[in-house]
Design a protein that fits this description.
With 304 residues, the chain is of the alpha/beta class. It contains seven helices and eight strands. Helix 1 packs across helix 2, helix 3 crosses helix 4 and helix 3 packs across helix 5. It binds iron/sulfur cluster (SF4). Iron/sulfur cluster binds next to helix 2.
């Protein structure tokens, strides 16, 4: 059940900001909230953004996305082990217990499979992603500073930016590297555009919270072994912040007008809402009379 909540341009809410160590320091007003995923939704298709962030319609669990969550969990736990024990067999041994944990949290995940045989072969398919990971990095030589870290900041104008960073490495000299694992598949051109947007988003949040522009942002594609790196500049991040403000203003205008238009494209093939989409012969439900008390855009979302 949801409770009435103000539209995005209504009275600001408050949220803690963080000092360079991540500790809350003060309450600061915010007018809206964006994660890389929700911002990308709006850029890709405003109606998709509406269904996820305003209507908050449920979406069926996907085997590909769940496998991504599982592999992320294994790679996070791998770094709990002493450095010399971070081997591929050790990572493989983490798969079953992490899958048990995910099913405990969301029992409906087990319903994705047509029997135990299919579930076992799906679990085995995650091993290939781990193998690729070990071909890209040697975890015995790394000591991450943070893993699965929620990063957030309220920038000037009151826009809150937040998201999960898979891994943060900090060199003895203080240079910051943000690492993100990608396990899903999508059309290449759309994927790269979204990835670059996501990297800039994280770079901006890290810069604004820690006062340091990350030296490198690195995406590891575990499906095909691709690596995408990016070294941001301060001025570029200032421009990107203005872009996010403009994006939020567009979302706010669409919300006030209750007008989120569909944008048909290749990502429609992965969209859960075709039956409710005018581009596919569907009819959108009435616009919600009140927004959920915590719009989905404010919730941290794993960006895979
Ligand atoms: S089916 Fe395509 S156009 Fe329709 S809501 Fe989904 S992404 Fe947008």
């Amino acid at each position: 059940m949801t409770s009435p909540a103000p539209l995005p341009s209504a009275a600001p809410s408050t949220a803690p900001t963080a000092d360079p160590d991540g500790a809350p320091t003060q309450e600061r007003a915010f007018v809206g909230s964006l994660s890389p995923s929700r911002a990308s939704d709006f850029k890709t298709c405003p109606l998709l953004y509406r269904y996820r962030s305003i209507d908050r319609l449920p979406e069926p669990a996907s085997k590909v996305a769940t496998r991504g969550t599982l592999v992320h969990a294994v790679l996070e736990r791998l770094y709990d082990l002493p450095a010399t024990e971070r081997t591929l067999p050790a990572a493989r041994d983490l798969l079953a217990p992490q899958w048990d944990r995910l099913r405990e949290q969301e029992p409906e995940l087990a319903e994705m499979f047509d029997g135990q045989e299919e579930a076992s072969s799906w679990l085995e398919s995650a091993v290939g992603l781990l193998q690729t990971y070990f071909g890209l990095e040697d975890p015995t030589r790394l000591e991450p500073a943070e893993r699965e870290q929620l990063v957030e900041v309220v920038v000037d104008g009151g826009l809150r930016l937040r998201g999960f960073v898979d891994r943060l490495d900090i060199s003895p000299a203080g240079a910051v590297r943000v690492v993100d694992y990608k396990t899903g598949a999508a059309p290449r051109e759309a994927f790269e555009g979204k990835a670059l947007f996501q990297l800039k988003f994280y770079a901006l949040v890290i810069w604004r919270t820690r006062g340091v522009v990350p030296r490198q942002l690195k995406l590891l594609y575990l499906k095909d072994g691709d690596v995408l790196t990016y070294s941001p500049e301060e001025q570029e991040l200032e421009r990107f912040e203005r872009t996010l403000h403009a994006l939020w203003e567009a979302i706010d205008r669409a919300t006030q007008a209750q007008d989120f238009r569909p944008h048909k494209g290749r990502l429609c093939d992965w969209c859960s809402f075709q039956a409710l989409c005018p581009e596919w012969g569907g009819t959108p439900p009435p616009f919600p009379v009140a927004l959920p008390i915590v719009p989905a855009a404010e919730q941290p979302v794993a960006d895979d």
